[in-house]
Structure formats: C-alpha cells, structure tokens
Amino acid sequence: AALGGYQKGCCFYCSTEIAEAGSLVALAEVDHFIPWSSQQVIFDDAVNLDGVWNLVIACQECNRGTGGKFRNLPNLATLKRLHARNEFYVLSHHPLREAIIAQMGRSPDNRADYLQQVWQTAHDHGLAIWEPPQRAEKAF
Q1: Taking the CB of residue 65, how many other CB atoms lie within 10 A of it?
Q2: What would the mean pLDDT of 56-70 be, rounded to a whole number?
C-alpha cells in the first residue's frame, strides 16, 4: 500500500490500472527495479536490492508477462522516473523517507548518483536493457 499510493493504482512501467486484490483490473505485483536475481551475483551485501528505493508496483504483464522485464534492467528514462518517485517520498516526508535517505544518501544528487551507479554496475555485468511497453491512453 505504501508503494502503490504514489502510483495511484497504476503500473510503474506502463500506467495500466492495477489493484492489490479482489478487483476486475490487473493484479498488482511488487517488482525489484534492479532485478533481485542480481543481488548475490553482482552486488553481494554492498547494495540492498530489497530496499524501498528499488521496489515498484507493476502489472503482471510488465513484471513477468510476454515481453516483460523479468531479469532485465528498465531503460534509463525509467531509471529517471524511479529517482523522481524516490524524491517524491523524501520531499513529502512519507514514512519511507528515512529508509530511502539511509540507503541512498542525504542529497538528491547523492541519491541520483547512487541509482546511476547501481544501474550501471548491473548493466556492466551483462543485464540487458528492457523497454517498457507503450500503452494506449484510456478514453474517458
């Protein structure tokens, strides 16, 4: 719920409407932006990929469907959106604020650098880049 509130019930990657449970819309899943599978192989204990800074709510299709992210890295444009999402938590004094600051740094520049370094390290170790799907805007 803490993660989903910022995303307003939509997938972080494609903006499809999602729900936590008991709904007719797509079911929400928690996704590790930097794949969790890279924890021991690449980062060991130096980086906590289970940190809230790395978790997003995604639809099943983006997380693990046909053409989904799986063990790939979202592109750099999506990395910038993750940074913006984390900064929203910090600036809004959300309860997750202190965890993000403790894990990523005190200033926005420190946090942006941290994200970029973790992303680049994963990419340098062979993780492929994944492009989130472009979904059509909903007609109201």
Answers
A1: 14
A2: 92
Question: Could you tell me the two tokens for 59?
Answer: 């639809």
Distance CA 125, CA 140 (A): 44
Q: What gap in Å lies between CA 73 and CA 123, rounded to an integer?
A: 7
pTM for the whole thing?
0.88
* pLDDT confidence band for 140 (50 / 70 / 90): very low
25: Cβ contacts below 8 Å, ≥ 6 apart: 9, 17, 18, 19
Long-range own/partner contacts, residues 67-70 (CB < 8 A, 24 or more apart)? 67/133, 69/13, 69/31, 69/35, 69/130, 69/132, 70/35, 70/130
Which pair of structure tokens corresponds to residue 85?
């999402």
**Helices then strands (H, E): number in the chain?**
6, 5
